[in-house]
Amino acid sequence: MKKRTTFKIDLGLSDIKVKNMVINTHDEYHIYVSCTATSTQCQNCNNVISKSHGTCKETIIEHLPILDNKVFIHVKWPRFVCLFCDKATTSFHPSWLNDTGELTRPYENFFLNF
Ligand SMILES: [Zn+2]
Question: How large a percentage of the chain has pLDDT more than 70?
Fold first, then answer.
């Protein structure tokens, strides 16, 4: 009988909760997460806003490899509407996400230090 061993990894990323993980045929880890943030800062007037306004399309973010396998995080960021400035909407952007929204900052730094 084949023995199974499991391990836990702390992704070190805030504001998300892992829902599911799939390892595909290329040994890439696809981690599906939901965002737990309940507010963000309006991109227009900088007020903290918490009135939910749906989510963005799913984005796929590359993170540090696990056991030499590529890691991709799938998430739909929540969007909030601002009641202070003519209903501008802002989507949540955690501090660990790079400016383009495609890489985590730890992963970006990993490349820069190579
Ligand atoms: Zn605003």
Answer: 97
User: How many Å lie between the centroid of ligand 1 and the Cα of residue 90?
Assistant: 8
CA of 14 to the centre of ligand 1 (A): 24
DSSP the chain: -------------SSEEEEEEEE-TT--EEEEEEE----EE-TTT--EE-EEEEEPPPEEEEEEEETTEEEEEEE--EEEE-TTTTT-EEE---TTB-TTSSBBHHHHHHHHT-
Query: Where do the domains of the chain lie?
Result: 16-112
Between the CA of 15 and the centroid of ligand 1 the distance, in Å, is 22
For 15-69, write each residue's pLDDT tens digit: 999 999 999 999 999 999 999 999 999 999 999 999 999 999 999 999 999 889 9
